[in-house]
Amino acid sequence: MSRAEPARAPGARPFALLGSELATLFRRRRTIAMLGALALVPILIAIAVRVTSAGSSGRGPAFLSDITQNGLFVGFTALTVSIPLFLPLTIGVVAGDTIAGEASLGTLRYLLVAPAGRLRLLGVKYLGAAVFAIAASAVIVVVGIGIGALLFPIGPVTLLSGDTIGAGDFALRALLMIGYVSMSLLGFAAIGTFISTLTTVPVGAMAATVVLAAASQIMDALPQLSAVHPWLFTHDWFAFGDLLRNPISWDSYAQNAVLQLGYIVVFGSLAIGRFTTTDVLS
Amino acid sequence: MNKNVKWLPAILAPVLVIGAVVAAPAVARAASTPPDKTAQQVLALIATAKDAAYSGTVEQHSDLGLPQLPTAGPGSSAGGSDATAQILDLLTADHTARVFVDGASKQRVQVLDKLAERDVIRNGSEVWTYDSKTKKANRITLSARSSAGSGTPIIGPVPNDPDTSTPGGSATPELQTLSPAQLADRAIQAITPSTYVAVTSTASVAGRAVYELELTPKTGSATLVSHVVLSVDAATGLPLRVVVDARGQKADAFSVGFSSIDFSTPAASLFRFTPPTGATVTTHTAPATSPTKKPHAAPNAAAHPKPTVTGTGWDTIVELPAGATATKGSSPTPSATQSKLLDELTTAVPGGRALQTSLLSVLLLDDGRVLVGSVPIASLESAVQ
Predict the structure, then answer these.
(1) Residues B144 and B235 in one domain
(2) How confident is the model at residue B288 (pLDDT cuts 50, 70, 90)?
(3) Nearest CA in chain A to B277
(4) What is the CATH classification number for the domain harbouring B325?
(5) Is there a domain that residue B197 lies in?
(6) Of A213-222, B33-42, B226-235, which has the strongest mean pLDDT?
(7) Do residues B187 and B276 share a domain?
(8) Domain that holds residue B379
(9) Average per-residue pLDDT in chain B?
C-alpha cells in the first residue's frame, strides 16, 4: 500500500482496502522473491535426493528417507526444513513491514487521510500478513508435491502410524496441513504487527520479530524451562505431524488454535492501543 | 483521557486470557463425588474393568533426578540408535501415547514422537509392532494360551513395585479362577504387612471422578519410595493414573495417566494392520508354553544364573550374579559411546560404580555383579557383604 487511495465513502466497498493492500503486497518484487525462495526449498531437496539417491533411513530431517519411495513426501520434508527459519523469516519481514514500512516511506499519513480509520487500517495490514502466511505454507507444500511427483514415483502414502491412505485422503490431509502451518504463524504475525507499530524503521521491526521466533524456539528446546513451554507460540509448530497419524490427532490442532488466538488477542489489542494513540509524524 | 480509553483493550486482553486459562480447568473439574469404598472394593472394581472398550491419550512424565538432555531440531532422532541413550530417553523424557482398547483381545498403542510414531497393534493372537523412524515392522503370533491371558496392555515402563507384582507374577494360573472380590482380598493381604492403604474419592483424572488408592510404605526411610497413588475410574473401574512419589522430592518421580479418555468402542479398522510397502517385516512366534516354564528355561539355566533377592516389601534388593547381564547383550564389552555415557551417569564408589535416581539405585560391582533396589546406595553397599 505505497500509494494513497482516493477518498471513498467507507462501507461502499468494504473489501476495497483489503483488496488494494493484497494487490500491493503480492505485486511487490520482495514478496514474489520471498515466495520464490520458499518454493526453492522443496525443489532443492528433491534434486539433492534425486542426484545422491538419498541417505540411510533415520538420518536427516523427518520424511527425507521416504522421498525415494514416494515423491509426495517432498512437501512434508520441505515443511519440516522451512518451519524453524525460512517461514518465520518471511512472515517476520511482511509483518514487521506492515506499519513501519508505510511510516518510513512517509505514506502512513496519507493512508490515514483517507476515511478508513486507524483500526481498519491496522486490521487490513494484519490480514495482509495472515494471507501471506497462508500463501507461504501453500507454496511449500504444493511445489513440494509437484516436484516430487515429477522426479519420483508416487503412490499411496504411508502414515506415521504405518497405515496407508489413498489420493483423496492425502489431498485432504495436505490441505489440513497448509491450514495448520499457516494458523500456527498467525500469533507470530500479530507479534510482528505490534512491533511494527512501535517504530518507523521497518528493518528493526523485522529483525526483532524474527529474533523473537528464534528465542522462543531455543526456550522450547530447553527441558529446564518446561513450565513455560505450552505458552510459547512456537511450541506446536512441529505438531503438524499429528495430521499424519491414523486417526488424526486433533488435540494439537485445537490446542494450537487456542494458543494462537491468545497471542492474537493480546498482541492485537496492544497494537490497537499503540497505533490508535500514537502521533503519526511521517 | 481519550488516549487512556484507547489503551483499555490492551490492558483487558491479558486479563481476559489469563482468566480463561484459570477458569477452564475449574469448569472441567466439576465431577460429582462417588460413594465411599474400601480398598478391597476398589481393587474388586479394577478387576471388573477387564473387557472395557475405550480410547484415550496417555501421558508419561518422569523426574528421576537424571540429567535432562536438550531435544534438538526438527524430527531429530532423540537419543539415536544407541541402546543406553534410548533407555535414558525413556527415563528422562516425557512421552505421550494414544491407546485404543476393545476388550481383552484388541489393543493398539501409539507412542507419539515428534514427527514419528511407534505402534503396537494386537488383534486376537496377532501382534504387530511398527516404528515409523526405522520403517521396521514385527509380526508376533501369540499361542492360544498366552493370548487368552491378561488383556491389559502395558503402556511404557510399569513402576517397579515389588509388593503388587509378586502375588500376580507367581500365581497367575490360580488367580484366573478367582472372583474379582477374592482377588482383591488376596492383594490387600499381600500388601498390608508392609504398606498403609488409604482410599479417597474427591479427585478427578481426565474429567472423570476417581478413587485414589494411596499406598505408603511402612518401612519409612529404608526405601526411596514416598508413596504410590493409583487413580481408578469410579464408574468403570479402569485405572486412569499411577503416580510414584520419591522421598525428599516435591515433583512426582514418575507418573503415567490418561489426559483424556473416551469410553466408546474404537473403529475396528484400527486393529487391522497391514505393513506398508518398503517396511522391513520380521516374523516371530511366541513360545507355546509360557517362558517361565521349565522346558524352555533349562538350556539357558547355566547362562542365566538366578538373581538373589534379599529383604521383603519395599526395601527389597535384587542381586544379579556376575555374567547375568553380560550374556544378555551379544558383545561382552559395551561400545565406546555406551560406556562413556554410563561413566557420565554413574559415580565411582568403592568396589564399583553406582547410579542413583530418585526412585531406584543401581550398584555395578567390578566383579560383574549388579545390585538393584528402591533403596539408598548405602543399603546396596551394605548388602554386598
Answers:
(1) yes
(2) low
(3) A158
(4) 3.30.310
(5) yes
(6) A213-222
(7) yes
(8) 301-384
(9) 75
Question: Distance (Å, rounded) from C-alpha A10 to C-alpha A117?
Answer: 9
Which residues of B fall within a CB distance of 8 Å from A269?
9-10, 12-13
B226 lies in some domain? yes
- CB contact at 8 A, B137 and B282: yes
Closest CA to A241 of B183, B256, B59, B114: B114
Residues B67 and B192 in one domain: yes
ipTM of the complex: 0.78
What is d(CA A187, CA A210) in angstroms, rounded to the nearest whole number?
A: 13
The grid coordinates listed for B323 are 555374567
Nearest CA in chain A to B130: A162
The per-residue pLDDT for range A244-282, each reduced to its tens digit, is 998 898 888 999 999 999 999 999 999 999 998 888 776
Asked if B275 and B165 sit in the same domain, the reply is yes
Specify the DSSP element, H or E, that contains B228: strand B225-233
What is the distance between the alpha carbons of residues A186 and A166, in angstroms, rounded to a whole number? 31
Which three three-digit cell numbers place residue A89? Answer: 523469516
Q: Encode pLDDT of A40-82 as tens digits.
A: 999 999 999 888 865 555 567 778 878 888 889 999 999 999 9
Nearest CA in chain A to B279: A162
CA A71 to CA A80: how far, in whole Å? 15
Binary contact (B16, A62; C-beta < 8 A): no
pLDDT of residue B31: 58
Q: Would B20 be classed as within a structural domain? A: no
In 10 A of CB A82, how many CB atoms? 26
Does B228 share its domain with B361?
A: no
Q: Which grid coordinates are listed for B186?
A: 488376596
The CATH number of residue B139's host domain is 2.50.20.10
**Is the same domain home to B254 and B109?**
yes
Query: How far A123 CA lies from chain B's nearest CA (Å)?
Result: 15
Write out chain A residues lying below 8 Å of B81, CB-based: 58
Which residues lie across from B353 on neighbouring strands? B348, B364
Best B62, B112, B123, B258 residue to mutate vs chain A (most A CBs within 10 Å): B112
CB contact B300 to A (< 8 Å): no
B152 within a domain of the structure (yes/no):
yes
Q: Do B86 and B203 share a domain, yes or no?
A: yes
The secondary element (H helix, E strand) that includes residue A29 is helix A29-52
Cross-chain Cβ contact B114/A274 below 8 Å: no
Phi then psi dihedrals of residue A59, to 5 deg = -110, 160
Total domains present in chain B: 2
The amino acid occupying position A111 is L
Cβ-based contacts of B276 with chain A (< 8 Å): 158, 162-164
B176 shares a domain with B272: yes
Q: Which of B282, B310, B327 is the last residue of a domain?
A: B282
Nearest partner of B369 among B385, B358, B357, B356, judged by Cα: B385
DSSP A83: T
